[in-house]
Design a protein that fits this description.
The protein has 120 residues and is mostly beta strands. It has no helices and eleven strands.
């Protein structure tokens, strides 16, 4: 059983900041938080920020310089610091995690989502 619990969403004005958290837990093998995605009404889910190989991070062009992803491996928790928020950042934000199965394949999991609304 894998559980991803997101928190930190809310309603803010343009220019303000929010910090999202995603805490991961598993009753079996370890699960790894790997990135943040978002989905606005009528749009497909899109990448916001993710950890790449070697510990580097990848950001969507629209959030570069404003958002920062980080994680605390000891707590298996990932964060998304969002600064200088814009109305176009309004969306449901989801965290994504993966886990290796006993057969060597990779499973992916999604959090329940947290709403971020930015007013102009």
């Amino acid at each position: 059983q894998v559980q991803l619990v997101e928190s930190g969403g809310g309603l803010v004005q343009a220019g303000e900041s929010l910090r999202l958290s995603c805490a991961a837990s598993s009753t079996t093998s370890s699960v790894n938080v790997i990135g943040w995605y978002r989905q606005a009404p009528g749009n497909q889910r899109e990448l916001v920020a993710t950890f790449a190989s070697g510990g580097s991070t990848v950001y969507a062009n629209s959030v570069k310089g404003r958002f920062t992803v980080s994680r605390d491996n000891a707590k298996n928790t990932m964060y998304l610091q969002m600064n200088s928020l814009k109305p176009e950042d309004t969306a449901v934000y989801y965290c994504k995690a993966n886990r290796l199965t006993a057969w060597g394949s990779t499973e992916y999991f999604w959090g329940q989502g947290t709403q971020v609304t930015v007013s102009s």
